[in-house]
Each structure stands twice: as structure tokens, then as C-alpha cells.
Amino acid sequence: MSLFGLRPETLFAMAEARAWCEKHGHEFVVTSCTEGRHGRSSRHYAGLAFDMRTRHMTPAQKTACVRALRKKLGEDYDVVREKTHFHLEYDPK
Question: 27: which residues sit within 8 A by CB, 6+ positions away?
Fold first, then answer.
């Protein structure tokens, strides 16, 4: 995994996600940034998105994390709960 090409907005979201995980005793693992296979118009390729692992969290912990990150990051960010990870992206409205 490479952090090359990530935008400051993405690094901010990554720092907030890491802080939440550390505060709640969870390992913070980024599984994808600008590399990997994503949809053609994915914000990953522009350095505006990353994925973080969630398999070590219970459903309640995942819900709490998503709520906290959505509140902290605000409406310019999307925090999407996928089956195996969270997808976070900077997507101003």
C-alpha cells in the first residue's frame, strides 16, 4: 500500500479515523489508497479516498465509528460502511 498521491483532505480523514481507533483500542489498518482496483471514476485514483479494515470490530463498534467519523469530518466527506471495510472519501457537495 502506498500513500503516494494522497491529498491533504484524505490525510486529515485518515488521521481522524486513526485517532478514533486508538481512543477505542482498535487497530487502524488502511487497506487501499490510490492503488488497487476500484470503479472507473473512483476518488481513490485522485488521492481523495482510502479504505480501512473493520473485521476486528463488532457491529456496534462499526456503527459507533461511522457515526463519530461522519460527525467529526462533516458533510464534505462520505463514510461508507462496506461488508469488509469502511470507505472514506472527500466529496464536497
Answer: 21, 53, 56
Pick from 22, 21, 42: nearest CA to 90: 42
* d(C-alpha 68, C-alpha 65), whole Å: 5
Rg (CA), the chain: 12
The whole-number pLDDT of residue 41 equals 72
Provide DSSP, the chain: ---TT--HHHHHHHHHHHHHHHHTT----EEESSSS---TT-TTTTT-EEEEE-TTS-HHHHHHHHHHHHHHH-TTEEEEE-SSEEEEEE---
Q: Per-residue pLDDT tens for 37-80?
A: 767 778 877 889 999 999 999 999 999 999 999 999 999 999 99
Phi, psi of 27 (to 5 degrees): -70, 135
Dmax (CA) of the chain: 35
